[in-house]
Amino acid sequence: MKKKGVIVGLSIPGIYPPGRTDVVLDTLAPAFLKSCVQSDPDLNSRYDIEIINSTIDTDLEALAREISEKNPYFVGYSVYVWNYEQMRENSARVRELLPDTKLIAGGPQVSFTAEETLLENPQIDLVICGEGEARFKDVLRGDIQHEMFHTIPLVSYRDAKGEIVQTSGDMGAIRREMTTVPSPFQNGTINLDDGQKHSVMIETFRGCPMRCSYCQWGDPDGTLQKFQLEQVLRDIDIVYNNPNVEFAYLVDANLFYTPRTHWKPIVERIRDASRKIPTVATLDIRAFNDEMVELFSQLELAFNQFHFGLQSTNPKALDLANRRCSDDLWLSRIKRIREIAPQIEISLDMIYGMPGDDYDGFMSTVDFALKLEPTRLYMFPLQVLPGTGYWDLKDDPKYGFKLSDKPEYMAYSNATYSESDMRRSYEFSTWFQALQRFYPIRDAVLSIDGDGRKVDNVKTYFEYLKQKIDPILGMSFDFSIHSDNRIRRHFMNTMALPKNAKLAYDAAIEMMSGKRDIDDVRLGAEFYDRLSRSGKSPESIEEDFKGLYGADRVDYVKCNWVNSDNLGA
Question: Largest alpha-carbon pair distance within the chain?
């Protein structure tokens, strides 16, 4: 009789597609592990593995009961920064219900903190560090018996005396083995025909040639481990021709880090598929030439966007982050993108709280970003994650990091970026949501002529708006992901209410007093005034306005926030 195994993947809900919880997110790590076991005749004859994909806001007590009812021989957890606490709570409860079940943890959040993980989680029996597919099979071949752990490279466990043991090994050799990991799409591990809608992750390689100090992606030697091209192309055929797939996410560091013989067939296969599925990918402006722009712009991109990581323009911050990218390169490449693919919109990531930076430096980065005319800016506080260059320097007085508690390790100050500056930056990033969720306001504020900085015009608008409403007044940011999501969700759910959306437009009208070309701002104020005061249904009012002003113009003035209670919305 086969032994039962359960692998748990806990994701953030409502990210892709935004605000949707009716779409199943097929997490890759559990799928790869199960796929490896299924492809091994011996292990497949001995183990029956089930994946439980859930979210971090699930009822962890109910999840523990669900797991216990399956009476598994082992339970594995795929652990990331966003689900570490949920893993802790759920695995502790599973241990109470199933005292003899083996509990295994793996993933980036525990790979570099294995000893701390075992100390904090006495219920966990084994931590597999780094890419785990091959060693997961080794663990199962040994029947997860304690006396076999010492033979497996790069794992951590407790010996007979309760002392923590960390085995040695060659991570490079382990990474090279992952190129033979079988596809979970091709052997049915991920079943896209189960009657549900799916959001799919696709991985074409692992690693990163860059060594940015804030990122977990890169390997010390900068090597890339590519999956076999034919396997990736078959995966694309399965995913992009299936009517149940709603969204696709290329989870590589940047597809275009790979040779042209790898990335070009992949992009062409996605382009030529029968279904045009919204696709997200992170790009690097330093590795994005004209051919890449032209070909990638032919895909059905989510939000019609090229998404890049700007992070900072502060030279000192970039130097300490081991990141090189000049302002001139950004300006020339964005200009070229718009010449080749004028229909494409640009979105940018930025990080505040990096060593060498401060609030004024962050504002300069925002101002530079605004000059690039992006559709959307995403601003994040620095997290000093295990396995990164900054993690190795977290106790160095030169950097002066002060970090929040595990698991986020969010920086609330460093030697150059004070805690008060961090809070000012967080407040700015939160208010900035309101600006970019109301397109006419954003476009009007950013089009103000004069010698001043665009970011200063933005801050002036915020002051006008704060005189009318302040959704985050009295709310405290405690430098945690949960706090950030709670405040951000509350802020935009509040601003999206018709009466408050009108206030947002009213503040812009007051700021723009005497200026021309704000007809769309005035229309937005009129639209939300009618919504907030009329007894008619919102749908009826919207149809009335579209009849008068046209659907495109009304869609333009509507707040584009997906009102949701989901953490990721």
Answer: 80
Structure tokens at 315: 């030279």
pLDDT tens track for 346-404: 999 999 999 999 999 999 999 999 999 999 999 999 999 999 999 999 999 999 999 99
DSSP labels for 16-68? TTTT--SEEEE-HHHHHHHHHHHTSHHHHHHEEEEEEEEETTS-HHHHHHHHH
What is the CATH class of 3-170? alpha beta
Check residue 37 and give its pLDDT: 96
State pLDDT tens for residues 254-276.
999 999 999 999 999 999 999 99
Q: How far apart are CA 470 and CA 495, in angstroms?
A: 9
Neighbours of 13 (CB within 10 A): 21
Interior CA angle at 385 toward 379 and 389, to 5°? 100
178-193 in b/e burial notation, b at 16+ Cβ within 10 A?
beebbbbbeeebbebe
Bridge partners, 410 (sequence order)? 383
Q: How far is it, in rounded angstroms, from Cα 155 to Cα 125?
A: 11
Model confidence at 104, pLDDT cuts 50, 70, 90, reads very high
Bridge partners of residue 158, in order along the sequence: 164
How many angstroms separate the CA atoms of 551 and 549, rounded?
7
DSSP letter string over 475-542?
A: ----SSHHHHHHHHHHHHHHHTSHHHHHHHHHHHHHHTTT-S--HHHHHHHHHHHHHHH-SS-HHHHH
Question: Which helix (DSSP H) or strand (DSSP E) does residue 351 occupy?
Answer: strand 345-352
CA separation for the pair 505, 407 (Å, rounded): 39
Place of tokens 């989680």: 121
Q: Which residues contact 540 (CB under 8 A, 6 or more apart)?
A: none
Domain boundary assignment for the chain: 3-170, 451-569
Residue with the two structure tokens 């990218």: 325
Sign of CA dihedral 47, 51, 56, 57: negative
404 DSSP 8-state letter: P
